[in-house]
Amino acid sequence: MRVAAAVTACLGLIAGAVVVAGPAMSAPSHELVITSIAFSGIDQTPGDGVCRTAAGTCTLRAALEESNALKGAPGDVVITVQPGLSGTIRPVMTRSAANWMQTSAVSNWDDGAFYRITAPVTVDLDNRLSIIPTSESTEGAAFEIAGTDVVLKNFTNILSSGTSIVMSEQAKRVSLTGGSTVTKENYYPERFVVYRQGASDISVSDYSLQGFFHEGQQTSGLFLFNATTTTPMKNITISRVSVNYTSGGTCNGSDGSGCRTNLTTFSPRDSNVVLDGFSFQDSVVKNLNGATGFKFSNGGNSGVRLSNLTISGNKFLNSTGDGSGDEYAFITLPPGTLSGENRISRNDIVRAASGQSIAIRWDGLTRSGTVPSGLSITDNFIDGYDSSIRLSRSGLTTVSGNTFGTRSGSQGRPATSEETGDGGALLVDNNGTDSNLSVATWFPTSNAAVVAAPSSTALVAAPRAGFTGGTCAAEFAVQRPVTGQNIPTGPVSLDLYWTADRTAEIYLGRVTGVTAATASVAVSLPVGPQALAGATAPTSAQAVNATTGDVSGFVRVQTHGETTPQLTSSQFSRTVAVTGNCRPSLVLEQAAGQNDPTMSRDLRYLLTSSLPLDPSTVTPDDVHLNATATAETIDTARIAPRVVSVTPVAGKNGLQFEVVARVDDSAAVSASIAPGRVTSTSGLTNTAAAISADAGITFLNPLQVTAPRFTLVTGEKKGKTYALMLRAGAPVPTASVTFSSQIDAVGVENGVHLSTDAPVIAPGGRSSEPVVVKASAGDVRANTKATIAATVASSDTNYDGLAVPSVNPFLFATDPTIDIEKRAFAAVTDASTPATIEQTGTPVLTGSRLVDGQAVCFVYTVTNRSADDWVTNLHDILVTDSDLRLGTDGLIGSISQLPIGDSKKVAACGTIFSNGTADGWRR
Questions:
Q1: Which 3-state string (H, E, C) describes 551-563?
Q2: Residue 258 half-sphere exposure, CB side, CA atoms within 13 Å?
C-alpha cells in the first residue's frame, strides 16, 4: 500500500440550476492499482487493504471487491490503473457469481451487472481501460452503483449488452466526469446510464457519447429513467456532454457506428417516474434523427411527474425527432402541473430540413389563465419548426427573449395575424384563453428610422450583450392594442426584435414600466453579420450592412404584463420596416465665435457628425491642415500647421468635436477630413470627406519690430535702436514673452552687438524695452547687410514659438551723410501729406511758444549727401524720432529709395499737452 495525493471532486452548476453536492473527500488512505485487464479474478481477502487475486494480480473486479469490503469514508479509497497498462476488458457473458458481481436484475432490462460498487470510492481508469462485450446472450449492465459518495473518472468505452452504468436506488452523491463512449464493434449496448427510483445527487459531466441501439421508445436511451415505485429521483445533472450521431453508418452485430437512440427516455412515461431536480445544460447534441430529445409526456393526460427542471445553455442541432404533432415536440413537457422552478433557457434548438413540427410544447391541463405556471422559456434560439413554442392551458408562463431563425413557421408580413393566431404556424402560440390570458400585444405604428441619438422622450432598450461589432440607433413608435381578447391595462415590458422578413432573428432588448397608450422606443441595431446556429453549419443575420451602412429588415414587439411572480407573455406583433444608413457623414467648419482673421493662436473648428463617433477614432492625425502663406508671412518654412487637440463637445454624445489647430506664422489655414478616417460607435467609417461651408481661418502673426531695417555706422557711439512689439488688437500677454536674439556671421564679423539679446514683453505689455544696436569701428563695405534673428518662448501659448521678424542693419564705415531737417507747422488744415502740411500750415520758428492743446505737425526732409568713397544710392531708409509718441512708436515713415543728391519728405502730427517750445515740444 502507498498513500496517494488527495482527490477532490466538486461540481458547480450555473446559478439557478440544480447543484449536485460531491462527497466530502479526505486524503486517500488506500490506493488500489489495477495491474491486469483480465475479466475474471476475484480478490483473495476482501477488506485486508490489498488487491490481490490468486494469480497475484489486481483486476478491476478484485479492486472493487476490496473497496466494497473496506467501506471507507469518502475519499479514503482510490482505484487507479498501473502506469503503462491499457486495453479492453472482455466480459464473460454467462451470468454467475463467479463471473458477475451482481447476478440479480438491476433494471427492467438488465439481469445483473459485471461490476458492482457499494461503498465510497474514487475509480479513475485514466481512459486506458475499456469494457466491450462480445455477445448479447445475456443482457446485463457494466456497472451497478449501489452505494454513496462514488466518483468515476475518465471512463472510456464502458459498454455492455444492455446498460453501461445503472444508478440504483442506493446511489447517492455519484459523479461521472471525463471520458468518451462510442459503440463501434457491435450494436449490443442500448443505454448509457439508467437512473432508478430513489437515486439522488447524480452528475455526468464532460463526456462524449455516440451510438447505442434503439430497441424501443421506452426501453432504450442514452439517459433512461426507470422506476417501479414513486420514490423520487432527485437532483440529476447532465452537463457539458457531447452527443454527435453520424448521418449514416451501420447498426448491427459487427458494426455499431451507425446506431442512434433517444437522448432521454422515461420508463414508464407516467406518474410512476417522479423526477425532482433534473438539469441538462451546456451540452451539444447533433443529428438526433428518428429518436426523441425530451419526451416527458405520454400523450393525453399522462406523463412524468416533473419539478425543478433546467434545460439551459445547450446546442440541439439538426434534429428530426421521432414523429410530429403536439406529442412529438423536441421538448414535450408532461401534461399538468410543474412544481418548483422550471426553466428552458439559452438553448439553440435547430431542426433538420424536415422532422418534428414543434420545438417546445406544454399542456398545463387545468391551470387557469391567472395562475403562475412555474415555467419560463427564455433567451432560446429556435429554427426550422412549424410552430416553435406552443402552450395550452398553461396559466401565466414567461416566454421572453427568444429568437427565431428564418426557417421558423410564422405569418407573412405585415404579420398582424401573428398577434392573434391560435394554432398553426406561429412563433409563440398562447393556445386558448388559459395560456397567458391570450394577452394582446403592443405593436409598432411607424417605420423604425436610424437616428443620431434617441429623442428625449424615447424609451431606450438595453441591448443584449454579445453583439459582434458596433451598433446603430433606430427609433419607432408603438401603441397599446385597442382590440383583442385581453388588452393589458397595467405596466408592461416590451421585448423588441429585428427580422430580415417575418420571424425574429435578433433580440434588441427590452423597455419596462410602459404605461401610456403610446410610446417611442429606441433600439440598437447590430452592425454586420450576427452569428446564429444552423442545422449543420452556422448561419447569420444582418440588420446593418457592414460595408455600405444600409439598414434593412423589420422590427416587431412582444408584450409582457408585469405580473408577479411571472410575466404574462403575449404572442409576437406585426412588423414594420427599418430605414436609414449607419455610416456617419461629417461637416467641418469654423467654430461659432471664431474670429477670421485672428491673432489668437488657437484656430477653432467644429466637427459635426450625423451619427455618434467613437472618440478614440477622432484624433489630431485624422484632421488634415492646409496652410498657405499670406502677405504678412515672415517665413514660409516656419508656418508648421498642426492640430493640437480634438475634444468631444460636452453633452453632444459623440456628435460634435472641437478641433484646435495652430501655426507659427501668418497663414491662411483650412481643415479637412478624408474618407475612412473616423469611426462611428457602430463601427463604421465615414465614406465621404467632411463637407464645409467655411473651413478656412487666416492667422495674423501678432509680432512686429519697430525698425526692421536701418543704416548703422561702425564705431558710432549712439548706435540705432529697435523694439519688438505687438500688433494693435493682439491678445494681451498673460505671461512674459521672452525673445532670444542671434546675430548672423556677417554681423559677428563686423562687431555688431546688442544692448540685450533677451528683450522681454512683460505680462500685459505691448512692447519690449528698446534694443540698442552698435557695430565696432572698422572698415566695412558700404551697405553690408547684417541680420539679427530671434526666437520667442512664453508660457502664454498665444506667443510661444511664433516666428519673429528679423532686424537688418546695413553697415557703413563712415556716415553716408543723410541730412534730416525737422520743421514744425501750426494751424495745419490738410495734414494728408508733407506737401499739404507745408502749403496749409504756418511755420513755427525755433524758440516760439506753443499753447496747451495746440495741434502741431512736423515735416522731416531727408537728403542723400553721400560723396567720395561712400557715394551710394540709399535704400529702405526708416525715419525715426526719439520721441516715441510721434508716428508709430517713434517710426515716422520709410523711404524705399533715395538717389545721390535727392531729397524726400515724411511727416507726423500731434497735440501739445503742456507749454513748450517748438524744439522741445510735448504732446
A1: ECCEEEEEEEECC
A2: 9
